[in-house]
Amino acid sequence: MNLIKLAGLFLLLYSTSVLAIEPFTIKDIRVEGVQRTEPGTVFSYLPVKVGDVMDDQHATASLHALFATGFFKDIELRMEDGVLIVVVKERPTVASVEITGVKEFPKQQLIDNLKYVGLAEGRIFDKSALEKSENELKRQYIARGKYSVVVKTVVKDLERNRVAVSFNVEEGGSSKIRRINIVGNQVYSEKELIGVMQLTTPGWFTFFTKNDQYSKQKLSADMESLRSYYMNSGYMDFNIESTQVSISPDKKDIYITLNISEGEKYTVSDVKVAGTQAVLTHDEILKLINLHPGDVFSRDAVTESTRKISERLGEEGYAFANVNAAPDVDKEKHQVAFTFVVDPMQRAYIRRINITGNDKTRDEVIRREFRQMESGWFSTSKIKKSKQRVDKLDYFSEVNLDTSPVPGTSDQMDVNMKVTEKTTGSFQIGAGYSSLEKVTLMGGITQANVFGTGNVLSTQVNTSRFNQVYSVNYTNPYYTDDGISRGFNFYKRRTDTTMLAIMSQYTSDTYGAGVSYGIPINDDEMFHLGVSLEQTTIGLTPYSPPQFTSYINTFGPTNKNEIGNIGWSRDTRDSAIYTTSGTIQRSFIEFSIPSSDQRYYKWTYQNQWFHGLTRNLTLMTNGDVGIAGGYGGMPLPFFKNFYAGGVGSVRGYDPNTLGPRDMYGFSMGGNKRLVGNVELMFPMPGMEKDPSVRLSAFVDGGEIIGSGGQTPGTDGMRYSSGIALTWFSPAGPLKLSWARPLNNQPQDNIQPLQFTLGSMF
């Protein structure tokens, strides 16, 4: 028997010089030592087969091929009576991966990350993958500023050629930035430049923002912020010469030094336009350019100008237009002239609109909101409007839209929309706390996208002590193909203010049903019409004010009304998910038809305005006006009065408590309402990229005026200020506010903390 034992790198490298086997013809091949690997797998990798002649060259090739699979840690080739015997020793498999001592990250997240470097349960154990795994764990912690992290690895052999791998992590403390030095600055102070950067030294908010922990990505972003800061101020030669990042021996403190060269300040000497005038004239293009001779050079102004020109050409269908601002720099005079070279290229049209991610919502529900049509000319504004309208459906937590050229063509594009559906069924609860009424609650159930059709079905069940509501509403937003909506409403309301110690005493039971229509005027405006039938029965108590008693004695406790509704609304918000610009306007009038038992009108107008001050700051103002009265010699029914106070009007005051009061000190409401709000919204520190969480600071003001003049001590506006949190949580939208009244009077009812929560199902 001849024995050829080939194992290890030495024999692999030098086999041709140390082996000299006598060639033989292979009569059969046998595999020994396999436990998990199938013999057929070994046969498939061998470069020889039965009938081949085995020699030194084929033996070396066979070893190379089998070792290259990574399945084996030792291989022997034997020959016995013409039979080639392949004896292998398999590498062990990973039975388990365990990480202990982890607090900074979810443990499963780290285990999942190790899969990408080759270490996971069920895989073949590889020492190189083990080393990569240690480095990957350290990298994750270093990215969080924990430079003192220690990772200890233990590999335990198990039965059946398996191993258990465990990592013990000692996280250590986070390294903090103790000092940021900027060298070479003369125009701006070091403090001002550091204020432009995201990285900073420890402060009040860095516990939340983590901006006092060094990150290479954050430093790169800060360097770009500094570059933009200078180049938008005219310093087009600005340059960051070098950066040095050092860490103290105990790995607790980090020091950053930036060496910069400011250069000279440049002004714009001339602005020209070159290129074809087939689509836009030079004068039209010049009006879109934000730079003028004599202006200080600004990189943002150049970028914004090219964007405006490209979008304007996009409006005409020129999706592939090339717009370049070519500078001509005069370094002696520190001036720069720009020539905007405009090439519209070929006009493009939309071949196909692709929608993905809508597993529940029907395609047609999304497509009917599109204003960019297939086979139509490309239009920047129509594509933007299409995204806004799908966004405003409020069926999706995320709406992304992009365009892509069609391969092989020069005049076709596809529109690709990807949506992330959210649960559109919800139940809402609202709550507040006051010293008088303790906790107050309300609730309702809504399905805003029934079976993916876009129709809305909602039921409200409110069983609070003073305001019980049972209602069912159904709305089809596309009752007709051109966007006319139709809705039905059935309701039962019971108001029992005798359960409150803040409102005038009476009870009312109302039954009603109605139908309403919405008629679109354009993409942003809609006209509303509706009619309903309503019956109301009023009950009084010995503590009811004389005005209420007089009204019931005159018109009786039960009345029936045919009520008409006419309204107009306009919505130009950029997004319903994360609004930063645009307006919402609503104007409605409710009136009883002359054949009714009562004759009254009630007009309301609301205007909300959103304006982005910066990338992260949004200013919102809200105005809400209401006027009501009777006609035909009849007064306004007291149960149709306006009220204010609480969430949705003037936070910090008990709901419905502002304005006139009766002889017992209870709130009566009034026939005129005025509410105003100013709110500055900004991201939660440390969560700037998460639009689901926003903080705000606000000032509210409001007033209710009665038809007979104000009760002494209750007249005048009431103001409050405070902070609020809005969070689209996994449990639903949460709104929490804390407000402090600014000019409350002794008879006012105060409620500092208020919140509403909607939970998804």
From TrEMBL:
It comes from the Bacteria. The keyword Chaperone does not apply. It holds the Pfam family POTRA. Its main location: membrane. Keywords: Cell outer membrane, Membrane, Repeat, Signal, Transmembrane, Transmembrane beta strand. Residues 24-91, 92-172, 175-263, 266-345, 348-422 form the POTRA domain. GO terms for biological process: Gram-negative-bacterium-type cell outer membrane assembly; protein insertion into membrane. The keyword Chaperone does not apply. Coiled coil: none annotated. One of its GO terms (cellular component) is cell outer membrane. It is found in: Cell outer membrane; Membrane. Residues 1-20 form the signal peptide. Part of the Bam complex. Belongs to the BamA family. Part of the outer membrane protein assembly complex, which is involved in assembly and insertion of beta-barrel proteins into the outer membrane. This is Outer membrane protein assembly factor BamA. It comes from Sideroxyarcus emersonii.
